[in-house]
Amino acid sequence: MTTTGCNLLPSQEAQAQSDASAQGERGAAAVETAIAETGTLSDPIEYTGTTGPVRRVSLRSQVEGRLLNLNADVGDPVSQGQPLAQLDNRLLTAALNQSEAELAALRSEVVQAEAEVSDAESRVAQAQAELQQAQIEADRLQGLAAEGVISQQEAERGRTVAITAEQAVRSAQEQVRTRQQAVVAARGRVEAQRAVVAEELERRQFSSLTAPIDGVVLERVTEPGNLVQPGDEVLSLGDFSAIKVIVQVSELELATIQTGQAVQVRLDAFPNQTFEGRVSRISPAADPTARLVPVEITMPNPTGQVGSGLLARVTFQSMQAQPIIVPESALTTAEEEKASTLFVVETQDGAATVLARSVQIGDRANGQVEVRAGLQPGETYVVRSSAPLEDGQSVRLSILSETAPQ
């Protein structure tokens, strides 16, 4: 099969045919080779954004007070739970002391109410003893009246005394129940006051502000001596264990981006480094005017070298397998049929030969062609040759050639 293409070296193209016919047997043609690699025909779209901490937290006061001291400055690293600021807590301490005094008074009321219950129970026991004695006496008088020793009127008086004693027992028992209810009420007031004391104690603890996360101080919002109200911000903290970058992506490109997709991030502040990140969040809402969708990128920052506010240049890595890209000069076209062919180089015992191989091509751009089938990454192929090539022909590699390791 005679083929054309595989562009000739400029200095040798004119005499290629005459040299080939003059040879009794075909000599080794000079070829320039390259190694098949995957890629894209066009450079990926680059988006710009600004670096920031993966989390930003405001340290705010929960109570009112004058700020006595602030133990952290901008750029200082802090650990979770580390004391950072102290408010004047004298008023809070006074309120706590008052609540504790009221609690002590209520506990005394409980003790007194319990003592009154004991007294009431003692009176019940005494009334029951008197009732028992009155019943015995009434029974004795009734027996004497039946024998005619005393009058029936005297026996009735004994029965009246017994009835009165029984009423006294019921009254004493009612007093016990009343006193017990008073104890329950007093204990309830004690529990309520305990809650007040616990709340006042917690409020006083709020006068000491501690770091809610591990991070770095981004901003001192106020200074010692200022009066701080509940909800006022004192410090701004950032978690730089990872970096967040938000870029605005066109709605037309959104279909090629997925959560978890790998991205490359370059920072002007670190021109010699490329950082790896991933898409952590895609906003469900686009800008109705610009039709841009915010996409959040998160990248690890274990050393903490990347700070906030740096210009970031983000490129998204394709989720699809990339085709092999070869120069158009590597393709040949058969005269009999319009099939694309390139020559693959095989080396054995130091001798190089070329094998013609049909390939399926895709898009073309800027002198490059996609090879979608017929060539594997890492194979060596001919970019250009000094003469037309045939299948199985011996060749010699130019000094510009790339070869795959054997």
TrEMBL record:
Q: Which UniProt keywords apply?
A: Coiled coil, Transport
Ranges of compositional bias, category Polar residues: 1-10
Which residue positions does the secretion signal occupy?
A: none
Tell me where in or outside the cell this protein is found: Cell envelope
Q: Does the keyword Transport apply?
A: yes
Name a GO CC annotation attached to this entry: efflux pump complex
Q: Where is the Multidrug resistance protein MdtA-like C-terminal permuted SH3 domain?
A: 324-383
Query: Which InterPro entries does its entry note?
Result: Beta-barrel_RND_2, MdtA-like_BSH, MdtA-like_C, RND_pump_MFP
Q: Where is the composition biased (Low complexity)?
A: 11-23
Q: Provide the protein name.
A: Efflux RND transporter periplasmic adaptor subunit
**Family per UniProt?**
Belongs to the membrane fusion protein (MFP) (TC 8.A.1) family.
Coiled-coil annotation: which residues?
89-144
Chain ranges of the Multidrug resistance protein MdtA-like barrel-sandwich hybrid domain: 55-233
**UniProt region (Disordered), positions on chain:** 1-29
Q: Start and end of every CusB-like beta-barrel domain? A: 245-319
Q: Which GO terms describe its molecular function?
A: efflux transmembrane transporter activity
Q: What is the predominant subcellular site recorded for this chain?
A: other
Any one Pfam family here would be BSH_RND
Is the keyword Methyltransferase in the record?
no
